[in-house]
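The aim of this short unit is practical: by the end, you should be able to scan a pair of folded records and say something sensible about each. We start with the first protein, listed as its amino acid sequence and then its structure tokens.
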Amino acid sequence: MERYCRKCGTKLKKEALYCPNCGEKDIASNKKFLNKYKIPLIIAAIIVIVLISFFVLTPQTQIIKVDDVEFEIPADYVNEPSRTNVSYDGNVKSSAMGWSNDKTYIEIGVTRSPGSGINSQEVAANVGGSPTKMLGHSGYYQKYDDESYSFVFGLKDRVCMVYVSDYDAFNDIKVVSEDL
């Protein structure tokens, strides 16, 4: 098939990219390039879109550790060093840490008795509140006058207390380590 310049009509050689007479770029050569690489370009574009949406739409989390219990919370929470507290009186060890983001505060405390052990379910029950299941555990829920909330539950020989300034923050918290 013979080709001609679309601008001046000069006959073009088979491999020509430009017209030798007027310098017009041969549009057909661009179409050949696009046809040859159309499918790989579409696949590359889909891969880029999938990767971008994975990083943008997937909620990012962080693993935090209070005493030796691991929790998962959203990545936008920042540790509040002034709220870190560890005490040990020879029988009971208590650790608490706090995190906040722009709108919510989370504090997690873990109490345990390293030597003799404690009945964590009994201790959680003595704290009081309404029996309920949250964070994948049975425990006791309390609502405070200042519109904050807590959930206390036993985890083997540990008593865990999760305190939040907004009830919806409970949905953002997961207990990660359970085989202590």
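Turning to the second protein, read its sequence before its tokens, just as you did above.
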Amino acid sequence: MNLKLLLSAAVISIAAFASTVLEAKPHKAGLNIYRMLLSERAVERLDLTVTQQEKIKTIAESEKAAIEVFKKAHPNKRDEIKALVHAETFDESAFRQVFAKGHSERVEMAVLKAKNKNAVWNTLTSEQQDKFEKMMKKRKAKMAKKHKEKD
């Protein structure tokens, strides 16, 4: 019985640490959709108007501000998880609560980002949307090729 409990605690703690490590990866600057759309090259290729550029800038700034507020309101759970894992006795229910809360917070962030991407998408005309999709396909193919060469 104790072996089962110890084994399940080990598996859960490994999963917790793996998820916190994945969250800790720095954001790659090259994958920022706003920065990419506002680059001179994209503005030229998509023929974005000044009004569209301003709207995209406003959306990007509001997302950045919302993320900062969200991060302050929802501090990282890493220390809390570490304390639970390193405790003398493992409190599974407390761990589950902390882990579930962290998951729901990530869902909220994903919803926020999806709303903003939708707003940017709807800022573009249908022709610009088509051009943008083609640009993204080329970019993904280029990135896949780059990663393949790395391996």
